[in-house]
Design brief:
Elements lengths: L1 H20 L1 E19 L9 E8 L6 E11 L2 E10 L17 E8 L3 E8 L2 H6 L5 H4 L1 H4 L14 E8 L6 E8 L12 E10 L2 E11 L35 E12 L4 E13 L10 E12 L5 E12 L10 E12 L4 E13 L1 E4 L2 E4 L17 E12 L1
């Protein structure tokens, strides 16, 4: 009897271990701090003369974060999955966004190898997820290398509240997906909503993706990405810079983008991207014509050794003539990055960027000369002139 009892207990223990092995919860995070220099910086929207600036920078190579992610095997190839991710400043410990804790991501869903995944909460759109493998920010960083102001949302600035996201499994390299975020406006299903759809194909060293994203204005707030929009970051506007500051009262914003990449060898790969961004006016907008920005860019990545990663990129953004602007704004940006891995989790990095702006744009309702604003890390301190240089060094650790 004693032997039988011991056998039952052993089997129960093995069963408990097996059940535990099918479930997982992981704590993870990133801390990234460094120094940044810009030769000319002023306050966004200001006409004051700019000055050089040296400051502590954080989240340059990878955004500072900590989070929990997990999965539970429900049987039949289906798993319950979740992610809770909080952003913070490595300089002062403050939360990245006001009004919440897990403001980078907070979602739960189901996934199945045969049917794909469906998730609900605050998360990235299908537009970003499908385009991201060939984004310029993969090796150039968003801080220094995002397309000017990240107007095409190829960096991680746009996270969407109240959203459902579906991503299919890969069918011989083909993946598709879509997302919809509910605006929650009484009397209007569309107001304040965000939707996107896209497709991605990967085959060996080659990959290509195309997607569309639309963000509709909330009737309760100002601007397509204001405090009442599904893209709100703790009540603040998202991805506002000197490039698009004249269009923050848009009724809607729409993006269509294509990204692609090819790996020539273990040491060399190239990515390219094109985007069309439209800021669409409404009755209460401070501009009357749809403002359109077209951007093309390319990145060359070189990995000479296991420890080194080197990137070089170029982006050209051009606005169409509209809203009384006689000479449309143009932005050319050059970015270089270097990363040295001290270990699998820790690395040193450096980045250098230059941007040149020409033509005219809007600031409020006034026509002004276009000014430079590198990537998306200098949006709060754009240049007061047509040129801007940015330099940075830092240390990043993952856990």
């Amino acid at each position: 009897m004693k032997k039988m009892t011991m056998a039952v207990m052993a089997l129960a223990g093995m069963a408990a271990q097996a059940a535990y092995a099918q479930n997982s919860v992981t704590l993870y995070g990133v801390v990234d701090n460094g120094l940044a220099y810009q030769n000319n910086g002023t306050t966004l929207g200001s006409s004051a003369q700019g000055h050089s600036l040296v400051k502590m920078s954080t989240g340059v190579w990878m955004g500072d974060r900590f989070g929990l992610k997990g999965a539970e095997d429900l049987g039949g190839g289906t798993k319950a999955i979740f992610t809770l991710e909080s952003g913070f400043s490595g300089n002062n410990g403050a939360s990245q966004f006001a009004g919440g804790m897990f403001t980078r991501q907070a979602w739960v869903g189901l996934t199945n190898e045969a049917y794909g995944s469906l998730t609900a909460g605050r998360q990235y759109t299908a537009y970003y997820t499908l385009l991201a493998p060939y984004s310029p920010t993969t090796w150039l960083t968003g801080y220094f290398g995002a397309h000017p102001g990240d107007i095409d949302s190829l960096d991680t600035l746009y996270r969407v509240n109240n959203s459902l996201v579906y991503l299919s499994p890969s069918f011989h390299g083909l993946t598709f997906g879509g997302s919809y975020a509910f605006g929650g406006e009484p009397g209007s299903f569309n107001a304040g909503s965000t939707w996107s759809a896209g497709v991605q194909y990967m085959s060996g060293p080659l990959g290509i993706a195309a997607a569309i994203q639309r963000i509709n204005n909330s009737t309760s707030g100002g601007g397509a990405w204001g405090a009442f929009s599904t893209t709100s970051n703790g009540g603040s506007q998202t991805a506002v810079s000197a490039i698009n500051n004249g269009y923050v009262t848009a009724k809607a914003q729409q993006r269509v983008a294509v990204t692609a990449g090819y790996k020539f060898s273990p040491a060399w790969e190239v990515t390219a991207s094109y985007s069309n961004v439209q800021y669409i006016p409404g009755a209460n907008s401070a501009f009357r014509d749809t403002a359109i920005f077209n951007t093309v860019g390319a990145v060359l990545h070189f990995k000479p050794t296991a420890a080194w990663d080197i990137g070089a990129g170029y982006a050209y953004t051009r606005a169409t003539k509209a809203n009384g602007v006689a000479s449309s704004a143009k932005y050319q940006q050059f970015t270089l990055t270097q990363y040295y891995a001290l270990s699998k989790r820790t690395g040193l990095y450096a980045a250098q960027a230059y941007q040149r702006a020409t033509g005219q744009t809007l600031n409020g309702g006034a026509i002004v000369n276009a000014t430079a604003s590198i990537g998306d890390g200098f949006s709060g301190n754009p240049s007061s002139t047509r040129d801007q240089i940015g330099l940075g060094v830092g240390l990043v650790h993952r856990f």
